[in-house]
Amino acid sequence: MKDFTFEETNLLCIYNQDNRERLIQVLTEMRGYLSPEETELRELTDHTLEKLRAMSDEEFAELELCPDFDE
Question: What InterPro entries has UniProt attached to this entry (predicted)?
Answer without folding.
Answer: TTRAP, TTRAP_sf
